[in-house]
Amino acid sequence: MTVIANTAALDALCPMHLTLSRTGHITHAGPTLEKIGPKGTLVGRRFLEIFEVKRPRKLSSITDLQGVPQNQLRLKLREAPFTTLKGILVPTGAEDGTLLVNLSFGISILDAVRDFALTNADFAATDLAIEMLYLVEAKTAAMEASYRLNCRLQGAKIAAEEQAFTDTLTGLKNRRALDTVLNRLLRDRDSFAVMQIDLDYFKTVNDTLGHAAGDYVLQHAARIMIEQTRSHDLVARVGGDEFTVVLPNVRSDDILRKVGQRIIERLEEPISFEGSDCKISASIGTVWIQPGQSPRMDELLSDADVALYASKHAGRATQTLYSPELRDAANAVVPPTEGRVAPAQPA
């Protein structure tokens, strides 16, 4: 009965040990095995009722187990979560035929720690599993820290990219974003429209009420353009008082006329700033690209400018849809120049 007399020592040194009678009944179980075993004490239950022998195969009795070479076992709990274990069975030399089985989790230790909420107190102090748990914990902490850092870096990258495509005063997209969207639409040869919008009388607001009033008017105009377009349309500020609206999937020029008219009507409403009314309007030049058309981007923007200046010369607060005749008329007045076509006009 030497083993039973030293169960306290075995519990400390081998918290996953079992003692078995010669009939295969459990006479004592280490504290960790009691924790992971079926509900209720393990003592008094048959070893082979708790554990299924996976290797060696075709073992069905305690006598078979004792005949295993080197007594090395591969076991699995018969109840969920069906944890796999490694074990070694040796006789104690006691007169009553008591057997000693010591178990370990092997490669399933991480699953076992999670499934049974095990801590370092459930293992012997000299068990290499403790070192593994420390390494896993350190690795997990390092990976979490790396993940948090990567999230911050990714967030900073996204913020920087967003800032690079955003006009800081109005919050609209900028020229860089406009070029990106137009290049994609031209490459895909889809139907879309481009509106060049210039604020009429904005210079007067700036000159008479100051730049603070001018900034306020620009921000107000930006909100109106956002409100009067669809969520997937692009509204960009491309100059001081110059804006561009890109409308994908346009079905008819009637839609373009209605959108432009709504923008003009809203912008003609007086804008109150510190007790003064800021009065502006908008001139719009629009180009409608049909499916399959593939102009160069500089040609597209030049056509929109030609239509814009036609609106200016027509008395402002109006929208003009581009046609080749407009360019012929513009060329008859002002010789072609590189870049934007800008006939002389009052400010």
Task: Please tell me about this protein's structure.
- By secondary structure, the protein is α+β, with helices and mostly antiparallel strands.
- The chain has 13 helices and 13 strands.
- The chain has 3 domains: 2-126, Haem NO binding associated domain (Beta-Lactamase, 2-Layer Sandwich), CATH 3.30.450; 129-163; 175-333, 2-Layer Sandwich (Alpha-Beta Plaits), CATH 3.30.70.
- 44% of the residues lie in helices and 20% in strands.
- Helix 9 runs antiparallel to helix 10 (211-227).
- The longest helix is centred in the middle third of the chain and has 37 residues, at 128-164.
- The termini are far apart.
Summarize the structure.
This protein has 13 helices and 13 strands. By secondary structure, it is α+β, with helices and mostly antiparallel strands.
Which labels suit this protein?
13 helices; Alpha-Beta Plaits; 347 residues; disordered N terminus; alpha+beta; 44% helix; five-stranded mixed beta sheet
How is the largest sheet built, in terms of strand order? 2-1-6-5-4-3
Uncertain runs are: 1-5, 335-347
Distance between the termini: 109 Å
- Strand count: 13
Helix content: 40-55%
Find the structural class using helix and strand composition. alpha+beta
What is the name of the CATH class of the largest domain?
A: Alpha Beta
Please report the number of helical segments.
13
Global geometry: rod-shaped
Question: Largest sheet, described in full?
Answer: 6 strands, antiparallel
Beta-strand percent range: 15-25%
